[in-house]
Specification:
Strand content: under 5%
Shape: rod-shaped
Number of strands: 0
Largest sheet: none
Helix content: over 70%
Number of domains: 1
């Protein structure tokens, strides 16, 4: 997760350095540093969203397994008391 955070910081820093220098008529193929930094920030935000969803799935699964372990231990404790 730190790699993604570092990339976002680098992209934001690149945006800061590039400033807001716009030409009167930019061609659609013009790839200024700010434009590229914006594209990279967009890509990183989507990658971060994907990774967050995957982490959420793993956390939910771990939570279910922990709950099942709790239930099993509770059942075992009741069985041992008899």
């Amino acid at each position: 997760m730190r790699r993604v955070e570092a990339r976002v910081l680098v992209a934001l820093f690149a945006l800061f350095l590039a400033g807001c220098h716009r030409h009167e008529r930019q061609q659609p193929d013009d790839r200024s540093a700010a434009h590229e930094a914006g594209r990279e920030a967009y890509r990183l935000s989507h990658e971060t969203k994907r990774l967050a969803k995957a982490a959420n799935r793993k956390l939910r699964q771990a939570s279910k397994e922990a709950h099942q372990g709790w239930v099993d231990a509770e059942h075992q404790a009741k069985t041992d008391q008899r």
